[in-house]
UniProtKB/TrEMBL annotation:
One of its GO terms (molecular function) is 6-phospho-beta-glucosidase activity. Belongs to the glycosyl hydrolase 1 family. It comes from the Bacteria. Its EC number is 3.2.1.86, 3.2.1.21. Pfam families: Glyco_hydro_1 (PF00232). The lineage of its organism: Bacteria, Bacillati, Bacillota, Clostridia, Lachnospirales. This is 6-phospho-beta-glucosidase gmuD. GO terms for cellular component: cytosol. It comes from Anaerostipes hadrus.
Length: 468
């Protein structure tokens, strides 16, 4: 029997994007780590395409914001690039062109009655701060980030009502220091990764303190929560999954909401002599400056089993405790290689409800990247991305169920509004409600964009199936 899946009338519908993936590098006073990575290793990027032009939001923001509004979005997130806004990285003095650009974007959102969420960091540390100070391993960089945040709040804090300190902070140590996916591409540097986790939490807390001091706005943090499911019911695998959860999820979630770090993580770090450098004053800052709301990026779960073969490296790493479990029969998005498991969204929602004060939260990213979407173009020139609509409907149904049971979710943002550039996959996998022609920069609404419009008008949709 068909069932209507409904959402509150004031629910946020929208999409996330980020400065470094959308704007292009026009007029930026500094390069960020991703710009530099591309400049020095072009061959590592799909078809050699870099962030230089990207989706050219820098020149197209007016039409883009209007177009996003036209498909029903009442809210959207982008990020201010540190490497664009700040001219003098040591003092936090802003760049005039950048102030004008971000002010224009804010004005355009106001004009179109779109709630803007401004994020302060989307993997885009200015490269000089990595080269001079070692990037996020350095507490001086934490203070420079706080200066950048202060400048942003002073400039725009009276006009922007929702801020976030970081996008997926865990990706910085994980992809940059443990797995080698992102610049600086270190592998298994566990001790350094732990310091980065601590420093990012400290930076977030310092920005929260400044935001509350300077503006009348709410501030949150956007975390990629990847529930760690054990391969089996064995006691060992269950314990392993708790350790993985502590290092990869709770390392940011606990301090963000409760102001403290997971004790089992601290114990393991102490046992292995890799505890980060911390002091009482900093821990107080983290304790006293927790988030007002939580953003959750959810794409795929993490399936884990207890490690049976020793990790082949000289460094300590949390990977010593687990191996990825390749579950037979799992659904996979073949273009990105990520498991599709909508039930995790329900599990996350219940976890936030039951263990994190039922804090107001929203899905800040969820989506499906597909390669070669031009093969789905119909006679009218529109991409018929039914697979994406199915993906959203399945996830939303599980989200609605958790909300009915009391989880305090106030919105759903997809990744992404308009196809955008990505960290070394460039434009291989497309995620947008709106297609981008890279040659002409022409934007065309996809079928999923039309679907979104209808969902927002009807505050829900009729489910094709009942997903569990
Ligand atoms: C999220 C990031 O993890 O996933 C985005 O916040 C990213 O920046 C998105 O683009 C999709 O991942 P990818 O690697 O396919 O672009």
């Amino acid at each position: 029997m068909s069932q209507k899946v409904t959402f509150p009338e004031d629910f946020w519908w929208g999409a996330a994007m980020s400065g470094p993936q959308m704007e292009g590098t026009f007029e930026k006073p500094h390069e960020n780590v991703m710009d530099y990575w591309y400049k020095t290793s072009k061959e590592e990027f799909f078809n050699g395409v870099g962030p230089t032009v990207a989706t050219d939001f820098f020149h197209h923001y007016k039409e883009d914001i209007k177009m996003m509004k036209s498909i029903g979005m009442n809210s959207f997130r982008t990020s201010i690039q540190w490497s664009r806004l700040i001219k003098d990285l040591e003092t936090g003095e802003p760049d005039e062109n950048a102030v004008k650009f971000y002010q224009d974007v804010i004005d355009e959102c106001k004009k179109n009655d779109i709630i803007l969420v401004l994020n302060l960091h989307h993997f885009d540390l200015p490269i000089e701060l990595f080269q001079k100070y070692g990037g996020w391993e350095s507490k001086h960089v934490v203070d420079l980030y706080a200066k950048f945040a202060k400048t942003a709040f002073e400039l725009f804090g009276d006009q922007v009502h929702y801020w976030t300190t970081f996008n997926e902070p865990m990706v910085i140590p994980e992809a940059g220091y443990l797995c080698g996916f992102h610049y600086p591409k270190y592998v298994n540097k566990g001790k350094e990764a732990m310091q980065v986790i601590y420093n990012l939490n400290l930076a977030s807390a310092k920005a929260i303190a400044l935001c509350h001091e300077i503006c009348d706005a709410k501030i949150g943090n956007i975390l990629n929560l990847t529930p760690a499911y054990p391969a089996t019911d064995s006691k060992e695998d269950q314990e392993t999954s708790k350790i993985v959860d502590a290092f990869y999820n709770r390392s940011f979630l606990e301090p963000a909401v409760h102001g403290v770090f997971p004790q089992e993580m601290i114990d393991i770090m102490k046992e292995n002599d890799v505890l980060w450098d911390q002091n009482e004053e900093e821990l107080e800052i983290i304790k006293n400056n927790t988030i007002d709301f939580l953003g959750v990026n959810y794409y795929h779960p993490k399936r884990v089993k207890t490690r049976t073969t020793p990790l082949d490296c000289d460094y300590w790493s949390p990977e010593q405790y687990y191996e990825e479990y390749d579950m037979p029969g799992k659904r996979v998005n073949p273009y990105r290689g990520w498991e599709i498991y909508p039930k995790a969204i329900y599990d996350i929602a219940k976890n936030v409800q039951e263990n994190y004060n039922n804090i107001p939260w929203f899905i800040s990213e969820n989506g499906m990247g597909v390669e070669g979407e031009e093969r789905y173009i119909n006679e009218e020139g529109k991409i018929e991305d039914d697979y994406r609509i199915d993906f959203y409907e399945e996830h939303l149904q599980l989200l609605a169920k958790a909300m009915e049971e009391g989880s305090n979710c106030f919105g759903y943002h997809a990744w992404t509004g308009i196809d955008c550039w990505s960290w070394n996959n460039a434009y291989k996998n497309r995620y947008g409600f709106i297609a981008l022609d890279l040659e002409t920069q022409k934007r065309t609404v996809k079928k999923s964009g039309e679907w979104l419009k209808k969902v927002t008008e009807e505050h829900g949709y009729i489910a094709k199936d009942s997903y569990q």
